[in-house]
Design goal:
By secondary structure, the protein is α+β, with helices and mostly antiparallel strands. The protein contains seven helices and 17 strands. It has a seven-stranded antiparallel β-sheet. Helix 1 crosses helix 3. The longest helix is centred in the first third of the chain and has 32 residues.
């Protein structure tokens, strides 16, 4: 049993060492060759790159873009988009290009061209691997991995008796924690610490949810991530989509309005666009219209009209909401509340994405988890070294 345990321990240590080597190698490649990883949340590039895929991308200058390349483009006040290049034209400068793109699974091309100086080209992808990355990024999983690594380091460097001494002096063996008279093993302290720290790290936000509210002839569909809205990170936009449709109504018009109230100190910004079809991954598959540019959200409680539609059509509004990068939002005044009102055909409805506010300065800083992992390994080595010195003194 002792031999089997040592073999299993050696195997796990070898696996951990190999994993560490791979991680170091990937970091070096990322810095030297500008290589990184992206995850696909939607299927706009299916079936070539289905949802849940993990792709390897490399940064290239715009002058090297070719038609047919699948590239990731950064967008102002919106999440990056990864689609296939359909045309490449000259840009405002020699280093820039104007490109158009289209998702393989989308019926229509992206609504507007992109002026870029550099992009990230997709070099390859693996289906469903993104789900594994998301799972590994869970605080619970990270805590367990840290705990396992700490236990391996302690086991690997803990001083052991030779085979002859094992047979001759069983009393020198390390006693099992919890046995009568043994007390608590000191190694448990640093094994439990990273696990507890992992519990304190905030869990990732929930995925976007869809809700439908209807009354009489009107139907409003709201799609958004309420948790992300309530914990906005400066410089990282959050999407909120609202669909307005009229059912079984006589000819007429429906007025769509917005209202903002709450804390002006947050500096919440918004850009609002509309589409005659449902938005897919931030892209309108039909006719699009810009209702509001990137401006601060008015929070004076005054209702402002966005657009009107006839009772025979539907309209999908996409709100890009964000806090300015590098800003210091004043959270003391509370969150900002946004509402979209639709009135017409004898009905009226209102929907909201929930309160919008900055990421609360509570919980444990994720850097502390990294520090705990490094400190736990160092403490394990120190404990093993202390045990070795103690045994030498006893002899």
């Amino acid at each position: 049993m002792r031999g089997a345990g040592r073999f299993l321990g050696d195997a796990m240590l070898s696996l951990a060492a190999f994993g560490g080597f791979v991680c170091v190698l990937l970091v070096i490649l990322a810095f030297v060759f500008n290589v990184s990883l992206i995850m696909f949340k939607t299927g706009s590039m299916g079936p070539t790159i289905p949802a849940g895929s993990l792709a390897v991308v490399r940064e290239i200058p715009a002058t090297k873009i070719r038609v047919g390349d699948v590239v990731t483009v950064e967008r102002l006040a919106a999440l990056p988009i990864t689609h296939r290049v359909t045309s490449v034209g000259d840009g405002p400068s020699d280093a820039e290009r104007v490109i158009t793109m289209k998702g393989d699974a989308n019926e229509a091309a992206d609504p507007a061209p992109y002026t870029v100086s550099d992009v990230r080209i997709v070099m390859g992808s693996v289906p469903n691997l993104a789900y594994g990355v998301v799972w590994l990024s869970s605080p619970w999983v990270l805590a367990l991995l840290t705990l396992g690594a700490s236990a391996l380091v302690t086991w690997a460097f803990w001083p052991r008796e030779s085979r002859e001494e094992d047979d001759a002096a069983e009393e020198d063996q390390i006693r099992i924690p919890g046995q009568p008279g043994t007390g608590t093993h000191p190694a448990l302290v640093f094994l439990v610490a990273p696990l507890a720290l992992g519990f304190a790290v905030a869990a990732p936000s929930q995925a976007a949810t869809e809700e439908i509210v209807s009354s009489g002839h009107l139907r409003l569909t709201t799609i958004g991530d309420k948790a992300a809205m309530a914990h906005l990170v400066p410089g990282e936009p959050v999407h909120w989509q609202v669909g307005v449709a009229v059912e079984d109504s006589p000819p007429g018009e429906v007025s769509i309005e917005r209202l903002g109230s709450g804390n002006a100190g947050l500096g919440l910004h918004a850009a609002i666009r509309s589409c005659d079809r449902r938005w897919v991954a931030g892209t309108c598959p039909g006719d699009t219209d810009k209702l509001q540019g990137a401006t601060p959200v008015a929070v004076d409680g005054i209702t402002r009209q966005l657009t009107t539609i006839s009772s025979a059509e539907q309209r999908w509004l996409l709100f890009d909401l964000w806090l300015p990068a590098g800003g210091r939002p004043d959270a003391a005044g509370g969150p900002v509340n946004l509402e979209v009102h639709a009135a017409g055909s004898g009905d009226g409805l209102m929907v909201s994405p929930g309160p919008a506010g900055p990421l609360a300065p509570t919980g444990t800083n994720p850097l502390l988890a990294l520090f705990a992992a490094v400190a736990s390994v160092g403490l394990g080595l120190a404990l093993a070294g202390a045990a070795k010195v103690s045994r030498k003194w006893k002899r």
